[in-house]
Amino acid sequence: MARMVQCARLKKEAEGLDFQMYPGDLGKRIFDNISKEAWGQWQGKQTMLINEHKLNMMDPEHRKMLEQQMEHFLFEDGEVQIEGYVPPSE
Prior knowledge:
Elements: E1 4-7, E2 12-15, H1 24-33, H2 36-52, H3 60-75
Antiparallel strand pairs: 1-2
């Protein structure tokens, strides 16, 4: 039986993550309030951000920026702005 959460990003009940994907309090908040589907959406955005900004995940400033973007996307209905990226048309 899947663990269900009220997803903060999708605004609906959806299948939750199998385990905490991110450390600390933010990780717990994500585990409790973000669905697998929304986490998957974030993973795609994260990859684009890392590539676009040539982020080095060993750099604490880069990790902090990425974490802020993640929180914005998952909990504040934020969209990730990637320069020069044009979403595919429907």
